[in-house]
Design a protein that fits this description.
Shape: globular
Helix content: over 70%
Radius of gyration: 22 Å
Number of domains: 3
Order of helices and strands: HHHHHHHHHHHHH
Structural class: mainly alpha
Number of strands: 0
Distance between the termini: 56 Å
């Protein structure tokens, strides 16, 4: 049985409504409008469709309104607006085909980072980079339309990349037999479950090589490769280079971009 709303909760709800009405009144008095829904949709659609160049252009546009007021402190307000924007980017990326765990983890990372920003200019730059990164993730994963069972299988795989994964465990998570999963998975994704798992582990390794200080040996262990030579062989299969060479070029690219 649902508990009755307490007086404290009623007061909080009423206060929120009153503040909303007051904000609307002030905007009308000052002829200020919020940044439009159409502007948000442009960002959403560009990310959802993996349009990296498009989202760069959209993020550089002059705002067609003023941002919301989520805090009286200007810096805190900018951070809160950033968090609201990241929520939009995350939903768009998931709809565009990025695995939920990947999108949510990326979101967490950006939200943690914005708390370290000390001025609004750095927050705006971080927001533009975040939008571009989410669009890049969509471009990488495409916009697959999987059946519910395969979606469950993919979600299980992405969550367990640091653990050994068996066909039986994935089929149990998907709610179908192992043989049916194998056939359906290849039909819908274009690759076997083993190849898909390896591909996702190598993509995770690429991110760790680019953005962490873990050694290649540690990364191979985290991602459940039986030994270093096997990790290097599979890494070269998907990237065409060794982990050491990949790290060298990814670090060089990030230095140039800054």
């Amino acid at each position: 049985m649902k508990e009755d709303i307490s007086e404290k909760e009623k007061t909080a709800a009423l206060l929120a409504e009153n503040r909303g009405e007051a904000a609307l009144f002030q905007r009308r008095e000052n002829l200020q409008k919020h940044t439009s829904y159409a502007s948000e949709r442009m960002q959403y659609e560009a990310i959802k469709n993996g349009q990296v160049e498009r989202i760069r252009s959209v993020m550089q546009r002059e705002p067609d309104g003023t941002p919301g007021i989520l805090s009286k402190d200007q810096l805190r307000n900018s951070k809160n607006m950033f968090i609201a924007g990241i929520t939009l980017f995350t939903r768009a990326a998931i709809e565009g085909g990025v695995p939920e765990e990947t999108a949510y983890s990326l979101s967490d990372g950006y939200i943690q980072t914005v708390e370290e920003c000390v001025d609004r200019d750095s927050i705006e730059k971080l927001s533009a980079k975040a939008a571009e990164r989410f669009a890049q993730e969509v471009r990488k994963y495409g916009n697959p339309s999987y059946s519910r069972a395969i979606e469950c299988a993919v979600r299980y795989i992405h969550l367990h990349l640091h653990n050994p994964i068996t066909l039986e465990e994935v089929s149990k998570a998907a709610g179908i037999s192992s043989s049916y999963l194998s056939r359906t998975f290849r039909k819908e994704t274009g690759m076997s479950i083993v190849d898909y798992i390896q591909k996702q582990r190598i993509e995770a390794a690429c991110n760790m090589l680019s953005y962490s200080d873990y050694t290649a040996s540690q990364i191979g262990e985290y991602l459940c490769f039986s030994n270093q030579s096997y990790f290097i062989r599979i890494f070269k299969k998907f990237t065409g280079m060794t982990p050491a060479k990949y790290r060298k070029y990814s670090v060089r690219g990030r230095i140039k971009s800054h």
